[in-house]
Amino acid sequence: MTTTDDPYGATIPRDVTGLLASMGDVLTAADVHVARRLGAIGGEDDERVLLAAALAVQALRSGSVCVVLDDGTWPAVEGWHEAIRRSPLVADGPDGQADRPLRWVDGRVYLDRYWRDEQTVRAAMHDRLSRPATADADALDAAVDRLYPSATDAAQREALRTAATSHLMVLTGGPGTGKTTTVARLVAALQAAAGPHLRVALAAPTGKAAARLQESVNAEVALLGAEDVGRVRATTVHRLLGWRPGTTTRFRHDRLRRLPHDVVIVDESSMVSLSLMARLVEALRPTARLVLVGDPDQLASVEAGAILSDLVAALPRGVVRLTQAHRYGPALAALAEAIRAGDAETTLALLRSGDEHRELIEPADERLSAQDVAGLRSDLETSGHALAAAARDGDAASALRALGTHRLLLAHREGPFGVAHWAATAEAWIGSGPGVWPLGRPLLVTENDRASGLYNGDTGVVISDRLGGVVVAFGEPEDPRLVRPYRLPAVQPVHAMTVHRGQGSQFHRVTLLLPPDTSPLLTRELLYTAVTRAREHVRVIGTEDAIRAAVERPVRRASGLREPR
Predict the structure, then answer these.
(1) pLDDT confidence of 2, banded at 50, 70, 90?
(2) What does residue 67 show for φ and ψ, rounded to 5 degrees?
(3) Is residue 1 pLDDT above 60, yes or no?
(4) Is there a contact between 283 and 217 (Cβ–Cβ < 8 Å)?
(5) Which of 346, 333, 367, 266 lies closest to 538, judged by CA?
(6) How far is CA 207 from CA 70, 197, 236, 375, 394, in A?
(7) Is 354 left (phi over 0), alpha (psi -120 to 50) or beta?
(8) Which residues pair with 471 in a beta bridge?
(9) How confident is residue 5, by pLDDT bands cut at 50, 70 and 90?
(10) What b/e readout covers 288-308, taking b as 16+ CB neighbours within 10 angstroms?
(11) Residue 115: in which H helix or E strand, if any?
(12) Which pLDDT band holds residue 11 (cuts at 50, 70, 90)?
């Protein structure tokens, strides 16, 4: 086992022995350092307790809220439970002392802050479901009939009624099932049922998602001709709450200074962490309606928690699921459903079917041959040449359309199956023009920038300004935004991106390059998220073992939200 003397390094220090040392393949130096520091402060030297503390810290890094000691993952340690429960570091049970850094509840060990966040979310959700909201029944019926006149729109009609008559609704469904359309009509229905002066807030976890939500909802409102709704604005959840620079958990709006809104709608809720959701529900007025929108089968927040998935599994009511896909045809919908259901045999059969919408390239080994990546190379070169041609002409609309024709998605950032390697490979295949800002180069924004109105995750393309200079085109082909290079925030070429980066985006064609089946990043949620980025065609390059590993390995994030309380 490799060790280091750096207390914050990737591996544990040399002076660590006993149980902590035995978990060197799981724990990092940071996990061990936090556990030992807690022990020093609290006067605890029992290595069984310190191991539990280190595993609780490690769990947060992997996205879990707590660590379940008896799930079969960890070694059987004699007297482990008893040592933890009597430790001065541990609050024993929900009613345990409030000044302890760790908490033991039903076989789960939490850092106490995360247990409290979990209880905040649990209590808020159950309270909201227990109290009906008032609405003008006749006005609501008329609005629902006007907005969804067809009997085939039963789920959408249910969503409008649930949002109008409850303080909590969770609207779920896969990509292209009409969630954003339903949100726009929901706003119109609420205005009709609760009054025209209803204060509505639209929010999303990221600036990119917020901008996309605002654009989509306003476009739908315009189609509806709902002049009484007016133009709506969306923002990030952090900005909605009033984020204070230099802090990660404190906001201007909290349980003492509530948000003024009557309705708060949060899109892409699968990406919201436990702590952020706790701060949001604390800041809501008791009479406000909360609508959470998202796909629980997609990748969850990079931080701790899988709130949307937990709530969908735990809530007995208040959840409306849209199932009919409108964005892509039955071939891709069937593939997505097979992955979502964990059916590896059907997933493989559909990918191997030879359908024009689905393609599987199965390499003989990890060393991909030129034949294995021939289709990928063709798509990259085709889209790259289209980008370059439109860029030379200064045609922003055509350049942005070309940008959405194909995207290479990967699980890893580094290594032979990572973004860095394949972005360089794509650049070599396509070839770059001269200069610092070569025409046709696709760019990814990597930080939020209010001055330029660009957000982390936005993509654009360098084009000619037809005056001898260049600009970068962002946004939709019908309404491009042109930004001079000197006004750009941090950007990088985007011939390839991680599946996480691609979440929320759509492309006509998608190529997913899978790592070997031993990769811990291969999960059902990653595969599902990747294939549902495609509108027309998805190509998967990977072995049968890798696909089986992904389909049969759902993300397991430990939490107590799914447990009845």
Answers:
(1) very low
(2) -120, 130
(3) no
(4) no
(5) 333
(6) 40, 26, 6, 34, 27
(7) left
(8) 463
(9) very low
(10) bbbbbbbbbbbbbbebbbbbb
(11) helix 112-130
(12) low
Pull the structure tokens for residue 371. 């034949």
* 102-to-334, 385, 562 alpha-carbon distances in Å: 45, 57, 20
Q: Can you tell me which residue has the tokens 């309404």?
A: 479
235, β-bridge pairs: 203
* Half-sphere exposure of residue 528: CA atoms within 13 angstroms, side-chain side: 27
Q: Which amino acid is at 295?
A: D
- pTM equals 0.85
DSSP letters for 354-370: --TTEEEE--SSSS--T
First to last CA, the chain: 42
The one-letter amino acid code at 168 reads L
161 near 154, Cβ under 8 Å? no
Buried b (16+ CB within 10 A) or exposed e, 199-231: ebbbbbbbbbbbbbbbebbbebbeebebeebee
The single-letter DSSP state of residue 243 is B
Whether 182 and 156 have beta carbons less than 8 Å apart is answered as: yes
Beta carbons of 77 and 67 less than 8 angstroms apart: no
